[in-house]
Each structure stands twice: as structure tokens, then as C-alpha cells.
Amino acid sequence: MTAQLDIIIMAAGKGTRMKSRTPKVLQRLAGRPLLQHVVSQAQSLAPRRVVVVTGHGAEQVEAACAAFQLPMATSLDMQFVRQEPQLGTGHAVQQAVPKLQDDDGVVVVLSGDVPLTLAQTVADLVEASGGDKLALLSVRVPDPTGYGRIVRDANGVVQRIVEHKDASDAQRAINEIYSGIMAAPARHLKQWLARLDNNNAQKEYYLTDVVAMAVADGVPVIGHCIDDPLQVEGVNSPMQLAALERAHQLRQAAKLMEQGVRLADPARFDLRDDARGVLAQLNCSTDVDIDVGCIFTGAVEIGEGARIGAYCHISNVKIAAGAVIHPFTHIDGEKAGVSVGEGALIGPFARLRPGAQLGREVHIGNFVEVKNSTLADGAKANHLAYLGDATVGERVNYGAGSITANYDGVNKHRTVIEADVHIGSNCVLVAPVTIGAGGTVGGGSTVTKNALPGALTVARGKQVSIADWKRPSKK
Ligand code: UD1
Ligand code: CA
After folding, report:
1. Are 421 and 437 found together in one domain?
2. Same domain, yes or no, for 313 and 340?
3. Could you point out which of 110, 325, 402, 408 has its C-alpha 20 to 30 Å from the C-alpha of 202?
4. Could you give phi then psi for residue 190, rounded to 5 degrees?
5. What digits encode the pLDDT tens for the residues 359-394?
6. Ligand 1 mutation pick, 62, 89, 203, max ligand atoms within 8 A of CB
7. What's the predicted TM-score (pTM) here?
8. Ligand 1 center from residue 130 Cα (angstroms)
9. Is 383 a catalytic residue?
């Protein structure tokens, strides 16, 4: 295929049935705006340019496009045209014509609300068009209601597309539907677009009317029918969005399971882009077990033999071999990342925040929060504790209820706990402070000064017992 490729993405529609203030093409599937799925498909076809037709929420949609994180580093020539008002798909594509200066190429039209088309499928469609034919992507579905039907003659040659609302009963019985995706020679498409009218049930300019024009002009029309409806399914309602999400997640789950990942239930697994737009990527080594209800977002790596318990939320982290993440644990490395060392035990109900770096065999127990802290091999914080901006040495035991007071209201300070220290329960370590190696801090201490290595440090009121104490009685 030598013809140059230009891609038009229609993204001006309102999506009334979503009943949302967010434009439909910015609704998310697997954490990624629908339109971003489509833009990245477009990008992987290495087009000369991509023209996005915006209308409803145009400013919001254009700003979102500028922020998309796309998988390849190559720059993409993405331009926008506004369609105002929205008079149909043909009218949408008409708006993009001024951006297509050249007549030599092939134009691919994609819909911003059809997220799961494989780039290879579109590449095959372009191939089928061959630079001089009109190629339509179609699929057979059990229930074609609402879709445009591919009308073929007795010899199977495509004659036209008829929209559901304009179709006769006989045409409505056709179950081969148009996907909304076509590849057309630019020079022909421009002429056909100029001739569109809106004499139809919806009083819209239908892009699909170009098919009958091609037939009339003697330009061959190829109906490229695939057998995977999911690739052409659009999103019109929250119900459809959720259905597509589940189908997509099931495919992601199946892919992982083919690589040997053991998901307890592929129907209860989610992998999404994270809230900052980091693309979903879950890399698992051999013998990884993932229990039900886990949500992975952003970039996650899981080492050999590691196990993830039920209902964990896991983002932007590297989990080393043999680590066990017990149920209901929340890990989000955000930008700084989190790393969990070999054989570490985390949770249940643990929270690892950005910059938590845990060595081998570290134990983090229930209701323990760790942020921007390094825990060396064998360190343990098993119950109800906070470690923020701390450097924790090997084999440290950090008692229940203890916290690093890392914030003085203006600045953050570090706490250093050297190797083999034992911090008792319910201590407050007021940073900046260092607890010397091998030291012990008595339970309930509020430590504001550095503690000597090897020493017992106690910083709390001395215990007194007053014998025969009488409680006050009612007068
Ligand atoms: C369209 C096709 C139909 C096909 C179906 C597949 C037409 C006339 N019909 O119908 O044959 O089976 O897709 O999903 O093309 N849009 C604009 N501007 C507009 C109207 C729509 O940008 O004025 C955009 C929408 O945002 C959307 C896409 O075009 O991304 C498709 O529009 P939609 O109204 O959903 O078309 P359908 O009625 O589904
Ligand atoms: Ca649609």
C-alpha cells in the first residue's frame, strides 16, 4: 500500500443518551477517553494527518486531545475542525475537506465513539480500498436495529447503505451492518461529499449516501465484513458503555491468562489507565496469582510467584518475586512509583503511596500507610502505623500505632531509623530526627531529639501510682 493516508475522526455528536455533561467521546473505557482509543488506533496506522471533527463540547474535546498520552513517541499531525451545527455524519466529514489539500491519498473515516477497532482491521480495510475503491467495514450481528444496513445485489455486490430509519421491512431484515468506518479515495470522496443532500427520515447529511454515488460512478465498493462485532460496537448509553467495558476487560484478562497469569475469575478483573492518563500496562512474570475483584491502573509489574489477594487496587508499582499482597490493599505509586521487594508481605488493608520503596521480606500489616519512605530488608510495620518521609534500616520493628510526624505545618522533614531499631507502640517520631542503630524507643514516647545507638530512649511522663485513690463521689 503506497497511497498516503489521511484519517478523519468524527467526534462532534452530543451523545444525548449518555445524559451526561461530559461529551460522549470523552467518556472513559478502561480509564481512557473513547476518543483516545480511536486516536491511538489512528496513530498506529502512521497517517499523514488526523483531522478530528468536534462540535459538542468542542473546546473540552480539543483540550483533552492535546493531553492524550499516546503509546508511540512519534509526533502526530492532529488538526481540528469544528462542525457547528451538527447536521449528520456526511456534514461532519464535509467540514474536514478543507484540511485535505491533496487528492492523491486514501481517507479513512473513524467514529470517536467506536473505541475497540483493532488497528490491523483498519489497515486491512485500507488495503481492500487499494487507493481506488470504496471499502466499508461491516459485520453481521444478531440484532441490527438502529444501524445502517449493507444492501447487496443478487451477486453480493454492495449497492448502497440504508439507514435503519429509512429502511423498508425487507431491508431491516438484513443483518450485515455498516460499522461507521470506511476507506475512500480522497479525490472521489470530495466529489461525493459535495453532492450529499438531506432528503431522508432524519433530515441529516448521511455519509453513508456516498456508497450509492460510488456505485453510480462505477467506483467499486468493497464490503469488508469481519466476524468480531466488538470491534465495531459504538457507545450510545451508559448501559452500552458498561457492556463494552466488560467485554474489553474480559479480552484483557484472556490475554493475560494465555500468558499464564492465573486470574481467579477473569470476569472480576480490571486493568485501566490511571487517573493521570498513564497507559494501562500489566506485566506479569510466571506463576502470578490474582484473586477476584482487583483493579490495576497505570503501569504495574509483578514478579515470579507473587500473589495478589482479593479486592486490591494496584497502580504504578513494581512488585518483586514471591511478594504477597493480602486483600483490600491500596497501592498507588503515582509519579514517584512504589516498589515492593522479594518475598514482602503487604496487607491486608495496607496503603502504599508514592515513593514507598520496600526491600526484601518487608512486612507491612493492616492499616499501615507508607509514603516516600525506604524500608530496608526485613523491616516490619505490622499494625496501625504511619511512615512518611522516613528512611528505615534493616530488620527495624516499628510498633503498632507509631507515626512519623513529618510535617511541621510548613515543611516536610525526614525521620531516620537505623538498622535493628525497635520502636515501641504508639510512638511519635517528630522529624527531623534520627534513631541510632540498635536503639529501642519505649512505647508511648514522643521523640523530638536524636536517640543514641544501642540506647533505650523513653520520652513520656513517668508512671505514678497513687495508692488507695478515691474517685470523687456525687454530692
Ligand atoms: C452511523 C451510520 C450507520 C452505522 C452506525 C455505526 C450514518 C448516517 N450512519 O449511524 O450507518 O451503522 O454509524 O455505529 O453515518 N457525528 C458528528 N457529527 C454529526 C453526527 C455525528 O461528528 O453531525 C459523529 C458522532 O459524534 C459519532 C459518529 O459521528 O462519533 C456517528 O454518529 P451517530 O449519530 O452515532 O451515527 P449513527 O446514527 O450511529
Ligand atoms: Ca452511533
Report:
1. yes
2. yes
3. 110
4. -60, -40
5. 999 999 999 999 999 999 999 999 999 999 999 999
6. 89
7. 0.94
8. 25
9. yes
